[in-house]
Amino acid sequence: MEGIAAAPESLAGPEWLELVAPDTGQHGALADDLVALRTRLAARPDGIEDAVPPRARLDDLRAELRRRGLDGFIVPRADEHQGEYVPRAAQRLAWLTGFTGSAGWAIVLADKAAVFVDGRYTLQVRAQVDTGLFEPLGYPETTPDTWLAANLAKGARFGFDPWLHALADADRLAQACTKAGADLVPVDSNPIDAVWPDRPPPPLAPVIPHPLELAGEAAEVKRARIAKLAADKGTDAVLLTQPDSIAWLLNIRGGDVPRTPFPLSFALLRKDGAVDLFIDQRKLTAVARAHLGNGVAVQAPAALAGALAELGASGATVWLDPNSAPRWALDRLGSGAKIVRDTDPVALPKACKNDVEMQGVRAAHKRDGAAVTRYLAWLAQTAPSGALDEIAAADRLQQLREETGAIRDLSFDTISGTGANGAIVHYHATPRTVRRLAPGELYLVDSGAQYRDGTTDITRTVAIGTPTPQMREHFTRVLKGHIALAMARFPVGTTGSQLDALARYHLWQVGLDYDHGTGHGVGAYLSVHEGPHRISKVANSVALRPGMIVSNEPGYYKAGAYGIRIENLVAVRPAEIAGADRAYLEFETLTLAPFDVACIEPALLTDAERAWVNAYHARVRDEIGQQVDATTRAWLDTATRTI
């Protein structure tokens, strides 16, 4: 569900209307509009469609740029909040190029254009984008700024939307333009919007209070805690631009973007703990207003410009995150403000879940694990016939999650890929690309759900029929990396980047690797991709801390043949090691669902690795077996047999 109707699935029925309707008549009318639009958008699962062909879109944009006296323009896959999760109205990159991945940029010049994607989308970009119009380039091998420096003509006027680029990003663009002898020009309005017919409206999903029994800490306590960080740094106010940070801080949830339960908004947190919340007030029910309380002053989004200008005029010191605050905000503060550039102060406290949040997360994973186990049992029975396709398989998994009665939404669009499609890291099955699950293939399903008590994300790779020896070897090497990370114990202060090689080692030994990170942070009924921590080759200075949730998902992708990924979510916790010379940490595995033992080559496992698999499967039997029906339990007993 996207656009205006981008509310969590369970909030699109009577419960949702109940939250909206009790207010004024405008809320009742809004609810009718939301439901109607949700029905209309259900027929457009890919989100962005348009009758205008790709070449005409590019021609129209170039004509608009000429009209504005611009020689080029950059189109990021971003909205004003610089986040991964964006509403339909901000899907400008998808509209222009056809590329629907979660990260990327396009640059359009008068005589050439390029689209930049990372290793997750190497195959997808060529499948979705007309390479006669846009040259696909790999990132970070080629970055937009280095390409600009090499391709911009001297004296060119290159445009960018200051709402869609964070401070650090805008600085890099400016340096590239200077190197090329060109000028970087901020636009007052986005030229894509001027040529995009039927652009969807901004979202208006209602704000929902997140109760203390799930949050584990009152919003006023959080506000005081983060405000002290701001005061200790000598700042008068923090501009919060990340919607998940604001949702966590104020204990609110929403549905403005697909699959992620937060409302789009901006906030100024003052050093005394007061908050100015800039949000479309039509999203606020009477219940939500009462929940926010007197410490939160609600203002219209348009009032943010004046509030920033006022801070600048008073000479205030303002905290901005250079990687998420839009360049537009810096311009509004003007030269009078003193700027402190540092990471969003909410990010780290939000990442370290408290005991109440962790209890909820564990409960969500048990519930979700039972649904996934039921799915795997059904798949084992259904898939070998060859009658099942990727879309039907994904639909069945969603149906089983819905049968829990607790799901609010998926946590991302399910990746359901068999055979060669499984080798596309972020593949999304469509009627045009869908394949049937056929014997002799590997099937990869990466999925997750949003529950009020937790967010899940799990990937399983299973063989349809009998896997080949090569499939078994590759699967087992990925599994060995997964186990190495799951079993890791590490000193306090260790970063995810220092652990990343553990997951890749057994692939590296035979000349294999994968082009994505090994682990991303996960929120508690918030974003399925959450910072500031991660496990990846890319250097990260954020040490892992107790309460952090991170994915453990090594993989291997054989282009044109199959993909393998094995993902569990894990939580960081203290490790008790007798005789340790300092404090150590370890991972608690949260995800509970069996691996496909038919894909495991036991001879490649050490005794310790084999023991880990057997212990994990025993835990799955004990904790999940009692939640499933007898038929599924019988399958589970076989699926988790000792190896």
From TrEMBL:
Origin: domain of life: Bacteria
Record-annotated membrane-spanning stretches: none
InterPro entries reported in the protein's UniProt record: Creatin/AminoP/Spt16_N, Creatinase/aminopeptidase-like, Creatinase_N, Pept_M24, Pept_M24B, Peptidase_M24_C, X-Pro_aminopeptidase_P
Peptidase M24 C-terminal domain segment(s): 584-643
Gene3D superfamilies: Creatinase/methionine aminopeptidase superfamily (3.90.230.10), Creatinase/prolidase N-terminal domain (3.40.350.10)
Domain called Creatinase N-terminal: residue spans: 57-189
Keyword Metal-binding: yes
Keywords: Aminopeptidase, Hydrolase, Metal-binding, Protease
MF terms in GO: metal ion binding; metalloaminopeptidase activity
GO cellular component: cytoplasm
Keyword Protease: yes
Domain annotation Peptidase M24: ranges: 360-573
Family that this chain belongs to: Belongs to the peptidase M24B family.
Name of the protein in question: Aminopeptidase P family protein
Taxonomy of the source species: Bacteria, Pseudomonadati, Pseudomonadota, Alphaproteobacteria, Hyphomicrobiales
